[in-house]
Amino acid sequence: MPGPDAGTGSPAHPPVVTQGMTCPSSPCHEGAVLIAVLGEDGRLGYLRPALPVDQEFLDACGQHGDPESRFRFADGCRQGGCENWSGRDCSLIGRLISARPADTPEASDSGLPRCAIRSDCRWFAQEGSRACGVCPLVVYRPLPAHSDQDRRSGTSVG
Known about the structure:
Blueprint: E1 22-26, E2 33-38, E3 44-52, H1 55-62, E4 71-76, H2 92-98, H3 122-127, H4 129-134, E5 138-140, E6 155-157
Antiparallel strand pairs: 1-4, 2-3, 2-4, 5-6
């Protein structure tokens, strides 16, 4: 029997397990984990295993500007504490998949990035390999209020 945090679901919208899920697009802070490094080509290179973010990392990283512009972080999904929570799942990944550049190939199960958090990733639980297809292009960037990009998410594609 599902726990109290499981979604209700329907055939078109299966239930999404929410307890213990990891958000793959967290700001950098102590207690988060470092899951990827942004390459010169604008794509993420994933780390296995993920590395814990501690004060020493924050101090070193802070000397070189915004860590989110160079790295990708993950942390526990905050569900209702996040502006991207729809009430039953994360609305951000659907928007990111819709905004995916047309020339980006779909990820197949055999071609998924080597990700350290897939087993409890919120996005993968909701969208499967479609999430993995866009994930290497997603960078968390807090956006200024006048930006034309998605002001709510602080996340951009490509």
